[in-house]
Amino acid sequence: MKTVTDIENMQSYAEKTRREGKVIALVPTMGFLHEGHLSLIRMADKAADLVVTSIYVNPTQFGPSEDVDQYPRDIDHDTTLAQQAGTDVLFVPTDKAMYPQGYQTFVTAEKLTRSLCGAFRPTHFRGVTTIVTKLFNIVKPHIAIFGQKDAQQAIVIRQMTRDLNFDVEIKVAPIIRHEDGLAMSSRNKYLTPQQRSEAPVLYQSLCEAQKMIEGGERNPNVVKKYTQKMIDTIASSKIDYIEIVDAVTLEAVREIKGNILIALAVYIGKARLIDNILIKV
Amino acid sequence: MKTVTDIENMQSYAEKTRREGKVIALVPTMGFLHEGHLSLIRMADKAADLVVTSIYVNPTQFGPSEDVDQYPRDIDHDTTLAQQAGTDVLFVPTDKAMYPQGYQTFVTAEKLTRSLCGAFRPTHFRGVTTIVTKLFNIVKPHIAIFGQKDAQQAIVIRQMTRDLNFDVEIKVAPIIRHEDGLAMSSRNKYLTPQQRSEAPVLYQSLCEAQKMIEGGERNPNVVKKYTQKMIDTIASSKIDYIEIVDAVTLEAVREIKGNILIALAVYIGKARLIDNILIKV
What we know:
2 copies of one chain form a homodimer.
Chain A: E1 2-4, H1 7-19, E2 24-29, H2 35-47, E3 50-55, H3 75-85, E4 89-91, H4 95-98, E5 105-109, H5 116-120, H6 124-139, E6 143-147, H7 151-163, E7 169-173, H8 193-198, H9 201-214, H10 220-232, E8 237-246, E9 259-268, E10 271-280
Parallel strand pairs in A: 1-4, 2-3, 2-6, 3-4, 6-7
Antiparallel strand pairs in A: 8-9, 9-10
């Protein structure tokens, strides 16, 4: 594995690789890698000749009240894990190179970014679509892999890729969970031991919602209320949202049918955790 | 020369061409080609192995009060001219393919698009940067060629290309003028014979401004006023703006020095014409 920090070096290496007829897969991450990321890298390794994992804590996807400097980092550990999982090139650019003086261009997907996390983090997805556009142009991948844990992000990226005609195949890898069901996340690091022991309630509530729906419940409000109640039993929890939406349009449904996404964002202590479940009714 | 209408066909042809180690140049146009466009195509022909000229009247760069359907079109004549000038592939996509149902992603350069034409056409450059992003992803050029006549557009595209890390070299070709000095433009078609005979005042006023500056004038307001007066002698004229700006930042200057762009947009009858001149002081 080699580490590349320079944008032009990454571009010329990608160009050379494409010319050789090799397939490039990109796994964009913000580092502090866990099994969730590694599953994406392994999926990339199966699908491509060259796996590029990017590690970059992208400032434009953090809101003004969100502390980008506090985001956990451990580049040495990341380097070891990324290599073990099958990364060929670790791309680690600097802020100065990614957003130089005078930077002013942004990519925005409009409709899909207004609901769910977009409603609470109004500039977040603009930062995501902008950085992914930049990474696509720098790494020149044939395939890019995202995690289902960030369900809205995956859908927004698919839409952006289609709308802007990026010649990139988007693959979405399933959520990786701890044994107790908590979705893996770099933000779990913020949890106290007490909060960590309570956090699995998020996934448990999604599983209960699924059971209700499988049992015949079709009223989203009934399912949402039950889920909210379960989460409210945790004193340190504060719900941003629990929504039952169409899995394609991300619009709230009035009746549970078709391909449904149940998505939630909940603070446990100071960690804002997200989780979701896809259901076909 | 071959004509391609399908986006995926264009992409796979571009990909194949790049793999062969050939250089692709893109000349994006809205058609109704004149000598200005042809000079861009000839420049592309000198610089690249494969010249792709796109013809697409992009609806997203027209404002709500601007009639995209009225924009002049003549695809048969365009096909002949484009081929004669050295086009290898004429890319002529449809609206339905470019902006399918549900389309929602836009590229925006912020600061540079607030002045000059951007102040009068608030969504225009968003449409331009979006369509150019799409064309870059479809045609996969090494080089893209724009005209100096659209001075602000050229600067915005350069900024966007740099910011989003497109691996594309932007070349800007000089303004082509009729013998009487009027800059060539598809919009000149809207002029009545009387207006056509008066329209050269735009370039004449820029030349007078240049003379004043060469003669030592450093106050932009003095130069602007003189220019305005010249244009106001034409009864059918209505000035959107005459500005003297820094040629890099497009910010208005208080004193004329360095690299200066004098740019104007003036209605002659119902034709909104633009012109500009670069001066190094």
